[in-house]
Design brief:
By secondary structure, this protein is an all-alpha fold. The chain has one domain. The chain is built from five helices and no strands.
Length: about 140
C-alpha cells in the first residue's frame, strides 16, 4: 500500500509540475517520449534497465537546462545576468541539498524501486528548472 501511494504521489507531482509550468510540449514531449519508449522496451523491464532510462532522461534535461541558461543569458542586461547567476547558484545549492536528502530517504527504504524513485526525483528537479528557464527565455527573446 505504501508503495502504491508513493508511486501515485510521484505521478501526481509530475503532472502538477507540467500543468503549473504550462510547459512547452516540444522539448518535454521529446524527452518524455524517449523515456517512455525506453521504459517500454523489454530490455528495460529490470530495475537496472529502468534506472538507466531515467538517468538518460535526467541527463537530457540537464543538457536542455544548460542550453536555456546560455540562451537566456544572451538576452539579459548586465544587471539581469548577475541576478540570474545568483539565482542559478542558489538553485544549484538547493538541488544538491535536495538530492542529498532524497538519497538519504530513498537509500534507507527497502526495495529496489526506491533507486528509481530517487532518480525520478532528480529528474523532476532539473526538468522543472529547465522549463522555468525556457519560459523566461521565451518571454525575453526578441521576436
Amino acid at each position: 500500500m505504501k508503495n502504491s501511494i508513493a508511486i501515485f504521489s510521484i505521478l501526481l507531482i509530475t503532472s502538477f509540475c507540467s500543468v503549473a509550468l504550462g510547459q512547452n510540449k516540444t522539448d518535454s514531449n521529446i524527452i518524455d517520449k524517449q523515456l517512455d519508449a525506453c521504459l517500454d522496451s523489454s530490455q528495460n523491464y529490470t530495475t537496472y534497465g529502468m534506472m538507466q532510462c531515467e538517468v538518460r532522461a535526467r541527463d537530457a534535461w540537464d543538457k536542455k537546462l544548460n542550453k536555456y541558461y546560455k540562451l537566456l543569458m544572451q538576452t539579459l542586461s548586465e544587471d539581469e545576468k548577475q541576478k540570474l547567476k545568483a539565482s542559478q547558484k542558489n538553485w544549484l545549492a538547493f538541488r544538491d541539498s535536495e538530492n542529498i536528502f532524497s538519497s538519504t530517504i530513498y537509500n534507507n527504504m527497502e526495495g529496489t524501486m526506491w533507486g528509481i524513485a530517487k532518480i525520478q526525483s532528480e529528474l523532476e528537479l532539473i526538468k522543472h528548472r529547465t522549463l522555468e528557464l525556457k519560459a523566461y527565455y521565451s518571454d525575453k527573446a526578441p521576436r
